[in-house]
Design a protein that fits this description.
This protein is an alpha+beta fold. It is built from 17 helices and 14 strands. The strands form 4 sheets. A 5-stranded mixed sheet has the order 12-11-10-13-14, with helices on both faces.
């Protein structure tokens, strides 16, 4: 006799009638031990047995690498209380109506999907794409259930391109939890103000009142949507989006200076200065001695560029210091005055931006919040898009992102 092991089937309210072991699969035939069911019309408990329904064959958890199928003929009961005495088929708790799998096997598929692709799971389990997708639809909601969110606190708004090379942007709304983890709240089809307002207003009023801060970039649609739908929330323009704008202003002057001095220098001298792009863009503490030499020569050749470089670093230092909102605002206004007195024009566009968004930009100094958690989450989305060769259905995208973020918790792992 070959060695034999026993373990619980872990399917409640059934007993095993027969088993069929083959090299291809294991089939376990069971029957219900539960008596009665609820009438599908009146909801009353009924006990009048009326035969069996069609045999169900459900895929279950594998055993020792072999596929397992559970076969069961559900009991049927007649209702004595309804006028036409309808019959109702009993359904046990470990499977869903018309599902081809047990709930346990659906969850097994979800576990395989975390950090993987549909195609990989299809190949490993020998299933069709639709069967795996069906498991996701049954086990993962296509939108957030607000009753699972105890409080909102800090949320972030940002967009990504759904398809490479297209201007079709979708909006990701995320939450930074108190423990630093990120939760997905919504995936919106466009970045219009009306779309964002509609989403925010779908949040239950009591939960919406717990939203304290919203981190975003300098896009009027997001800012105005928050101000309209969640008046108590503080809008914070991300300091790194601000930095990108003023650093680009200084870099534009660098390019202009190189074009102007090209005719005045030898080829070797110009090549030496041309290699200053990264030393100019990096923080002074991050450049090598050789790069400092190149940068010093460039700034010596262009006094205006030295002014722009120094003003850029002064502005970075303002954001790095521990300011209150009042002192941070005062420091930014002093910096703006210095720029105007310098006679430089490269920062003109940025000055207008700073004046427009000064209130939201200086909200950063209240709690030093940034959109870092949003940007980190966006990278996860980009990885998922590459891994899954693009997902264009927003419901599926929400489910896959939610599974990657919350899957282990969802499955109790």
């Amino acid at each position: 006799m070959p060695p034999v092991i026993e373990f619980p089937l872990d399917l409640p309210d059934v007993r095993i009638v027969a088993t069929d072991l083959s090299e291809a699969a294991i089939t376990i035939r069971v029957e219900s031990t539960r008596s009665g069911t609820r009438c599908r019309q009146c909801g009353a408990q009924i006990e009048d047995f009326h035969g069996y329904g069609e045999r169900l064959r459900l895929r279950h958890l594998p055993i020792l690498g072999r596929p397992v199928f559970i076969e069961v003929r559900p009991r049927r009961y007649r209702c004595p209380f309804c006028e036409d005495h309808p019959t109702t088929t009993q359904q046990l708790d470990w499977y869903e109506a018309r599902a081809p799998h047990t709930k346990a096997y659906d969850q097994w598929l979800l576990r395989l999907l975390i950090g993987s692709t549909m195609e990989d799971v299809v190949r490993k389990e020998g299933l069709s794409y639709d069967l795996v997708l069906g498991a996701v639809k049954r086990q993962v909601a296509g939108a957030i259930h607000w009753d699972t969110v105890p409080t909102l606190g800090i949320i972030g708004l940002d967009e990504i391109a759904l398809r490479k090379g297209h201007d079709h942007f979708i909006v990701l709304i995320t939450q930074r939890r108190a423990d630093g983890t990120v939760a997905l709240l919504g995936v919106l089809p466009d970045r219009k103000k009306e779309t964002v307002v509609a989403f925010l207003r779908r949040i239950p009023l009591a939960l919406r009142a717990t939203m304290t801060d919203v981190c975003t970039d300098m896009y009027e649609g997001y800012v105005n949507a928050v101000k309209e739908a969640v008046q108590q929330a503080r809008v914070i323009i991300d300091r790194f989006h601000v930095a990108k704008a003023y650093r680009a202003s200084a870099d534009a002057l660098r390019k202009e200076v190189l074009r102007d001095v090209k005719a005045q220098l030898t080829k070797e001298q110009y090549q030496f200065l041309k290699g200053t792009m990264w030393p100019f863009r990096r923080a002074p503490k991050d450049i090598t001695p050789e790069e400092k030499e190149r940068l010093a020569l460039l700034l010596e050749c262009a006094p205006d560029l030295r002014q722009a470089y120094d003003l850029r670093e002064k502005l970075t230092a303002i954001f790095d210091r521990e300011h209150s909102k009042a002192s941070g605002t005062a420091a930014l206004k002093r910096w703006m005055k210095q720029v105007r007195q310098s006679g430089l024009t490269c920062f003109d566009s940025f000055l207008k931006t700073l004046e427009t968004w000064l209130e939201e930009i200086t909200n950063y100094f209240v709690a030093r919040l940034t959109s870092g958690f949003v940007e980190g989450f966006n990278n996860k989305v980009k990885v998922l898009k590459r891994r899954c060769y693009g997902i264009t259905n927003l419901t599926h995208l929400f489910q896959r992102l939610y599974l990657d973020l919350e899957g282990y918790r969802l499955l109790g792992l």
